[in-house]
Request: fold
Amino acid sequence: MMRDDDPYDRDPPETGGDHRASAPPASPDGSPTAGPRPFWKRWPFWKRVMQAGAVVFVLLIAWLTVTAPLSRSLRPIAPPSITLLSSDGKAIARKGAIIDRPVVIADLPKHVPQAFMGIEDRRFYSHWGIDPRGIARAAWRNTVAGGVREGGSTITQQLAKVAFLDSDRTAARKLREVLIAFWLEARLSKDEILARYLSNVYFGDNVYGLRAASLHYFNRQPEKLTVGQAAMLAGLLKAPSRLSPTDNLKGARARQKVVIAAMADAGFLTAEQAANVAPAKLNVRPLRTLPSGTYFADWALPAARDNAGAVYAEQEVTTTLDSRVQRAAEAAVRRAGLGKAQVALVAMRPDGSVVAMVGGKNYAASPFNRATQARRQPGSTFKLFVYLAALREGMTPDTLIDDAPIKVGDWSPANSDGRYRGKITLREAFARSSNVAAVRIAHQVGMDKVIRAARDLGITSPLAVDDATLALGTSGVTLTELTAAYAAVAANAYPVKPHALPEGEKSWYDAFWDRPRKIDPEMHAMLLDLLGAAVREGTGRSATLAIDAFGKTGTTQDNRDAIFVGFSGDLVAAVWVGNDDNSPLGGIAGGGLPARIWRDFMSRVVDGAAAPRVEREPVAEPDPEPIVAIESDGNGPVLDVSGAIGNVDMGLRVGPDGVVVSATPANGGNGPADTSRRPAPATLPPDPPREPAPADQP
Reply:
């Protein structure tokens, strides 16, 4: 039985026409033939596609000619220059580059270009400007990683980048780059392309070009580079500033190994040759001239170069520096009266944006940046990490600790004032900066947990786990990383990374894995309690502001370093005072001059931090100083003291007969005189005869 809705059981529609016109044509044997071919299988369709493609290509070439003249890519490339701007758009420094003569590929040992091809573009001599296999590999790895971890650009494409005045990363820029790569491949030989690339790429330390880099890092011409040296230079291209061997030799050597492995994988080296390559040793050639600019500009320049890319043109890079705050920092340092001592000041927002930096008293006289380059002992400012470790172990600011002498091995720490108060709270111990209490706490919680607290808050300098003196800040750190650690407390987000350029938007991968951690709210409140007590009632009283301030003093042995670091409002700042030769400061402590510089600076840049001016009632003239006279009445010495107290003239006479006190109204003596006589406690003996002084003494 058929269903009513069966499509195969329906009569054909009744129409009034001949149905044979719609039937498919029959073959000679009576079977139906195939219908017309689909349009995409017809030649006219593809002909039109090719014509449209040709039109699009011509339009692209025309657009490229207008937006990025092809002739520019064949001209000599001008040395790059960067102008650094403050956050409010004011120019703060302009930097040129260290360059040298171009290289010629035929004059270089084979392993030199092979090192760069092995890590950057191993199919350089076989592709035609772009490498589809490399692009596919990079796209796959970036997809797996969840963000940009590898680029697929060829050496020709990277050379094409330097023909542009901007470093934007738009699709239009990438398309221009690809088209110029094709143009370069058509107009230049492979050796010419590679030579131009090696002669202009950035190698860190403000050095551009292989020859300049070879002379700078190894003090030799590129024609004499060893395999290890060539591999190290090739490895720098991934992150020139971060891997610069003058600052990060360990990282540069690790990257050298990666390049050697890539050369072996590409067939440029045998396994035995790769295994025999030794780590490259530096022989840095001194710069011919001192750097110019400012302390902040020198620190910000590497990041600015990385951010701008290897673009050979005049560029402007906006930094985080606040020109108003910077002027206040410089003025506070000038007013400090430092004498022969040096000074450093760092100010940043709680997110790590550095808004002011002073690396010394005079940049022209000494460009060495004591805020970022000097590793000095932090002293008691390091106790922040000791007490954070204690809070993590369940202690509170009200927990009692012994402020009494202690001995650790052969070491007996002592409080700076020589006083010991017995059982005191952690709050008082922190405020008074008790050394013995800090050592006791570190011993109780374990030095490994103290170091963990320091690492969590961003301290990256080496710290000795088996050194009990670490609790008192005996391991050197930079002032910038110490400031960032206190910024982590101010922001309640750690770690805080100091930066000179505004942070860009993070990929979802970086946002997920690099998201900051927070201190437990109760623990954070206790840290603020401790830091506030140090300023209100402890060693940091000289840093008191009109609003809440939090901080800690630090003074190293023999007063060689004096530090104050703290925060208030939306600003975190640290001040260091010391001598470059590490000699004692002569009594200067962290709670003295550094705290006063900090207060002077913060009161001018933090809203509400300056104490309001108070109108005072007129003050009466002070009573005149008393007149004191010593004479003799023949019976012995007599002491006469006279003066005014309020409206009464007072007199005091001490002699052999006793003590006489008199009081007379200051209105002319119209009141009665009040005199009284008391017996003297003892009779003063006459002075013994004095021998004459020698002739050579006054």
Remarks:
- The CA atoms of residues 580 and 685 lie 57 Å apart.
- The chain has 20 helices and 15 strands.
- The longest strand covers residues 637-645.
- Confidence is low (pLDDT under 50) at residues 1-22, 613-635, 638-649, 664-698.
